[in-house]
Amino acid sequence: MLSIPGPTISSVSFPCFAVYKAHQKTTREFVDVVIEVPKGSIVKRRPDGSVDFLLPCPCPFNYGSVISTSASDGDPLDAVVLGGHLPYGHIGTWRVKGLLKFVDAGVEDDKLVCIQTLPETDCLMQQIVGDFSIFDLLALSVIFTVYSQFKHLVNVSRGMQGMTTFIGWEPYE
């Protein structure tokens, strides 16, 4: 797991990925994601479509939630979908590459990282084109480290307490 310097959380468990992995026999390494924040948008929406807040800069990836899941925060499991722009409300089946471990106001709020690869494709070229690189991992690490600071300010303005931090990366195997 990639760790980013900052607070350590040794006493917190992260069941979200374990729950996801427990369902691998049915979902395998693909999940259905509905896009809530298209790549390039500054509007962060809730799963119900209402506006949550405005981002300080355009989102560098597609962001949404995994259909028919429930995370520790009560919302569907969050998902980052790397690749080209997808419109708001788009539903697609994407390959899971790993999990970003995140805590929001003291509550586990992990995010699956997915790539735009077709589930029925075994073609080597499609795997190369739609694969995940160390540069993607570094970019996500930097983005979520900065985002955690911004989200902490949003939480404080809403009277929410608890730590908000990006913890690291866990690859899907």
Automatic annotation (TrEMBL):
Q: Which cofactor does the UniProt annotation name?
A: Mg(2+)
Its protein name is inorganic diphosphatase
Q: What is the lineage of its organism?
A: Eukaryota, Viridiplantae, Streptophyta, Embryophyta, Tracheophyta
Q: What top-level class of enzyme does the UniProt entry assign?
A: hydrolase
Q: Which domain of life is it from?
A: Eukaryota
GO-annotated biological processes: phosphate-containing compound metabolic process
Which keywords does this chain's UniProt record carry?
Answer: Hydrolase, Magnesium, Metal-binding
**SUPFAM superfamilies the record matches:** Inorganic pyrophosphatase (SSF50324)
As its record notes, the protein acts as a catalyst of: diphosphate + H2O = 2 phosphate + H(+)
- Which InterPro entries does UniProt cross-reference here? Pyrophosphatase (IPR008162), Pyrophosphatase_sf (IPR036649)
EC number(s) per entry: 3.6.1.1
